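S1.2 Input.
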Amino acid sequence: MSIPKAVAATIRLTVPAGGARPAPPVGPALGQYRLNLMAFCKDFNARTQKFKPDTPMAVSITAYKDNTFEFTVKSPSVAWYLKKAAGVESGSGRPGHVTASTVSLRHVYEIAKLKQTNDAHLHNMPLESLSKSIIGTASSMGIKIVKDLD
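S1.3 Output.
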């Protein structure tokens, strides 16, 4: 049986897909724990090469006392996907009163499938539940969900 490693820190960053470089924000965050920046950058860029460049990826890095690390990459946030599908820069300033844009149910279903396949913690969650969660997020952003776009 192996002895568990002592954790020095858990670092959470948002890094563009395929765009990890030893410059800020990655460099200072990992450098203070004396982690190998180039190893992280190469591994992260390899894991995110299937995504379009500049797609914001959430990464959680566990730094250990012996200067090693592990990390998990999550797909972009639901809000990012909704803004892309709706074609807007940001949601409504007054959700519930002002509609920023509209998105079809087909878009919601596609976002749910993407999140389910790319995020390990969502593999066992039913698509219906994920879709309801996405509809709630859209509502809070002022994005209206319609059956079909005309």
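S1.4 Remarks. DSSP finds five helices and five strands in the chain.
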